[in-house]
Amino acid sequence: MNFNQNHKMIFSKSIWNKITVFFLFFFFAFASNAQILEPVKWTSKIEKKGNNAVLIFDGTIEKDWHMYSQFTPEGGPLALEIAFKNQKGNYELVGKAKEGKTRTAFNDVFGVNETFFEGKAHIEQEIKIINPNLKTVDVDFDFQVCKEVCINSNKKFSIAVPSTFKMDEVPVIAPAQLDETKRTGLAIDTVKKETEVAKDQTVKAETEKAIKEEIPAPAPARSLWSIFFIAFLSGFAALLTPCVFPMIPMTVSFFTKQSKSRAKGIRNAIIYGLSIIAIYVILGLIVTKIFGADALNALSTDVWFNLIFFVILIIFATSFLGAFEIMLPNSWANKADQQADKGGIVGILFMALALAIVSFSCTGPIVGTLLVEAASNGGIAPVVGMLGFSSALALPFMLFAMFPGWLNSLPKSGGWLNTVKVVLGFLELALAFKFLSNADLVLQLHFLEREVFIAIWIAIFAALTLYLFGKITLPHDSPLQHISVGRLYLGLLTLVFTMYLIPGLWGAPLKLISAFPPPPQYSESPFGVGGSGNSGLSADVKGLPEGAELGPHGIMVFHDYEDGLAYAKEIHKPIMLDFTGYACVNCRKMENNVWSEPTILPILKNDVVLISLYVDDKRELPKEEQFVTAAGDKIITVGDKWTDFMISKYKTNTQPLYVITDLEGNNLHTSKPTISYVNADEYLNWLKEGIANFK
Predict the structure, then answer these.
(1) pTM metric for this prediction
(2) Which residues cross the membrane (predicted)?
C-alpha cells in the first residue's frame, strides 16, 4: 500500500487501530525472519597467562541442539574449524585449541566416533604475542550445529588485546617485520557483535562424504553399562581359552588345600579375584591417563593408526589360528611366581599378576582390541571396559572357591578350548580388515572397496564354517571323530551369516553389519554387481541430460539450479529443490529412510525434477560470478551461492529443506511451503499436494 495515497485514511483511525497495525507489522516482520536460526550464542575474552595470553570462547547452545567438536573425525559431520586470520607476524599458537566438556557418540554407519558439545561449548587457545603493536586477534569459527536439521554457521571474533598484555614481555621486532605487520591491515578497534550465518564449512574429501549409506543423527554414545557388558562377554570368551580355563581348577584347589580353613580359602580366592580385577583396571587407568579422553578418538581415523592396528590384529589372529604363540618374557612370569611364593596378600597379588602374564597369548589380543574400542569412546570407558573384562575373568575363581563341588561340573580341558581360540582368531581376522578399510577410506585409494571387503568377509566366515563342521583342521586341533551339538549350532550360525553376506555383492544393504564395510557407493558398482543403476527411470528418459547424474536410489538429480530448471521446462514437470549438505546428518537419513519408501521413490524418479543444492560445496565460483550480498556477505563458493539462495528466497538456513516449485520458481504449496525432517507419511502427503497443484 502506498503511504502517500493512504496516509489520511490511516491516521483517521483510532489510537487502538494504530497500535494494532503497529503490532501486526512487527509480527509479520519478525515472522519473515523467524526461520533464520542461531542456536549458538557466543562470547569471547582474552586473559593473561604468564608471558602469554589465552583466548577464551564460550558458546551457549540451545536445548536439543549439538555442535560438533574440532575432534570429530573425517567421515562424519563437519568438525569445528578455527582460523586465526591475522596470526602471521603478530602471534604464535601455543599448542592446539583446548575444549571443555564434550560427548562422544559412535555412529555405526560412519564407523567413527562423533564428538560434540551440548548445552555449552568452551574453547581455549593459548597464544604468544610477538608484535607489541597488535590491537586485535581476529578469529573465525566455522561449525555445524544440528537438531532435526543442521546449520553450517560462521562466527567472526575480533578480540581487543589490552596494552598491559604486552608491557616488557614482548621481544623487540625488527622494523622491517613491523612494516610487514602494518601492511596486513590489523587496526580493528571494535568487537563485532553480529553473528554471520549460513557460511559453508571447509569440506574435506567432498565427493566421498556424499556417498555414505546412511548418516543418522548422532547415535547415542555407548553407555558405560553397555561397554561393561561387551567387555564382560569378551572376558568370558577369554576365560574359555586354553591359556586360562585350565587354571581355574588348579588355582582353586591350591587355595582350598593350602588354606588352614575353608573360610580362609574362600577369602584368599576372593582376594585373588579382586587382584585380577585391580590389575586390569589399573591398566585401563594407565591408558586413560596417557592418552586422555579424546586422543584415541582422534587417532581412530588416522591412516597410520589404522594400518598399524591392522597389522597387529593380523599377527594376533595368526597366533590364535595356531601358527605361533605370542608370550611375554618368561622372566616376568618367573619373577611374579617367586613373589607369589612369599604368601599373604602380597603373594596372592603376584599370583594374579602371574596369571595375567602367562595368559597373555590368549587375553592380549582381546584386551588390546577392547582398550582401543573403549578408549575411543572417551572418558573413563577404558576403566569400565577393563572392569567388565576382568570381572568375567575373576568371577569363576571366586565362585568355585566358595562352592568347590562345582568343579566337578566343569567340562574337562581338551580340544574344545583350542576351538574357542581358533574361532576368536577368525573374528580377529575379520575385524582387522575394518581397520584397513578405514585407512583406505581416508586416503580414498579405492583398494578395498565394498565388494572386495564383503568378499573377504565371505571367505573368512565360510572358512570358519568349514572349520566348525570339521572340514578344516589347524595345527593344535585334536583328532575329531565327531562334532558336538554346540559346535554344530555355531557352525549353522556362521553358515547363515555367510549366506546373509553374499547378496551384499549385488547391492544388498547388509544393515546388520553396516558399521563395518565401506558404504555402498564406495564400490566398483555403486548399484550392485551387474546393476546399471538406471532401473526405475522414466521411460522417456534416454540416458542422462546435461548436468544430471544418478543420485540416491538411482534418482536422476541435478546439482545446478539452471540446468535442472532448463530440463524441467523441457519435459514440463515440477521441480523439487533439495537444499542439502555433504555432511548433513539428517539429509542422509531422509534420503535413506524416507526417499527409499516404495510409495515415495517412484514419485521422485518419475513425477518431479530433483535439484539437490549443496550448501557446503567448497568449490570456488568463477570470479565473474562472485558477489557481495546486501548484508555484506561475500559469495565466493558454490555453497555460498546456494546458501544465499535459500536464505533470500525461503528465509531459512537449515538443512534438509525441500521445496516444490513450478517452472517459474513459484511455490506450489500454500499450507506448508517448505518441509524439512519428517516421517514418510507426512513427506508423501506433501509431495502429492505439491505435484497436484502443478499446472
Answers:
(1) 0.47
(2) 224-248, 269-291, 303-324, 345-367, 379-403, 415-433, 453-474, 486-506
